[in-house]
Design brief:
The protein is of the alpha/beta class and 330 residues long. It has helices at 25-31, 66-70, 163-171, 207-219, 241-250, 277-284, 299-311; strands spanning 3-7, 14-18, 49-51, 73-75, 86-89, 97-106, 111-117, 127-131, 137-141, 151-157, 177-184, 197-203, 226-232, 254-260, 272-274, 291-298, 319-324. It binds FE2/S2 (inorganic) cluster (FES).
């Protein structure tokens, strides 16, 4: 039976407690009479997030974003820790902000956007955790720009039986409120070398953080060439084509191309062609030395692209990524 240590928010109290066999950290803390947030108790809602600098059991981080994992976040309801494990309480509920919903609109057949009041400051490309009224939490990237837009925008993919995406689509209406926690993440543009070539690759709602990063680079006056590659199953999976075309017309150093698996019809955009984004990057960018790379989308896509970009010479410090990891119950 492991003994573990639970640090309260300001570290003024450290609770030492002995967990029963197969008892989760969350259950042990609740059993001791400490009131901590929780919801599903099954690794879905993320409401029981805590942090630790110790070795975290893998099962306690399934479904978290890579940046959360790197910051030592884990779900206490799925955590069966080793003896001596130390856990820290994360931000309290009072640090959440409430935002009024301004708009909800479909962007393609299965992705919709939600615009809410600008209630937090953020870097384009970061993400926030959104909470439903029934305690389900999911992380979504900021697709808006804090200086250019007077709203915050998130792109949400409708997932069949998805606990948050279906709740938000079915229940959130204009003037309803949403709790937001964040921002988090370190995948964003920095003005370190304004002449550096930027390569951005994404699939699905990976476009949300990339669109924010792209606008940030362009608005900051980035001089180097910027190329955005988007991938999808077919052209109906893509969205924001007009927004991207407008940017490409306005900024000479920006271009974008989309690669879809299915045959492309003649009347579809000139920017869309049949192909594989991974193969295209491999072919078009054999040497990525001195190129800054941004990769956003499904975890498997990001991992594969990251490896390829590294093999093509991109330095790991020049690869920024945001991997979306699917929830086991979504
Ligand atoms: S209570 Fe832990 S993920 Fe929901």
């Amino acid at each position: 039976m492991p003994t573990v240590y639970f640090h309260t928010l300001d570290d003024t109290d450290v609770l030492s407690l002995q967990l029963n066999d197969n008892e989760s950290l969350l259950d042990g803390i609740l059993r001791s009479g400490i009131d901590v947030p929780f919801g599903c108790k099954s690794g879905v809602c993320q409401s029981c997030l805590m942090q630790s600098n110790d070795t975290i059991p893998q099962t306690a981080q399934l479904g978290l974003r890579q940046t959360q994992i790197e910051q030592g976040f884990f779900m206490s309801c799925c955590c069966l820790p080793e003896d001596g494990f130390r856990a820290h309480m994360t931000k309290p509920k009072s640090d959440f902000v409430t935002a009024k919903v301004l708009e909800k609109e479909l962007l393609n057949q299965d992705i919709y956007r939600i615009r809410v009041e600008k209630v937090v400051d953020y870097r384009p490309g970061q993400f926030a955790t959104l909470w439903s009224s029934n305690g389900v939490a999911r992380s979504y990237s900021f697709a808006s720009h804090p200086q250019e837009d007077d709203f915050i925008e998130f792109h949400i993919k409708k997932i069949e039986n998805g606990a948050f995406s279906q709740w938000a689509w079915n229940n959130l209406e204009q003037s309803h409120t949403l709790e937001i926690q964040g921002p988090l993440g370190d995948c964003f543009y920095t003005e370190s070398d304004m002449n550096q070539t930027l390569l951005m690759c994404g699939i699905g709602t990976g476009l949300a953080p990339l669109y924010g990063i792209l606008r940030d680079a362009l608005i900051s006056g980035h001089k180097g060439k910027i190329t955005l590659y988007l991938g999808g199953r077919n052209s109906t999976n893509l969205y924001f084509m007009d927004n991207l075309k407008t940017l490409a017309e306005k900024f000479n150093n920006f271009s974008f191309e989309c690669f879809v698996q299915e045959v492309v019809l003649d009347n579809q955009s000139a920017n869309i062609q049949q192909g594989d984004i991974y193969q295209e990057v491999k072919r078009a960018y054999p040497n990525l030395e001195d190129t800054k790379v941004f990769l956003c989308g499904a975890d498997s896509f990001v991992k594969k692209m990251k490896k390829q970009c590294f093999l093509s010479g991109a330095s790991m410090k020049d690869i920024s990524s945001d991997a979306f990891i699917a929830f086991k119950k979504d």
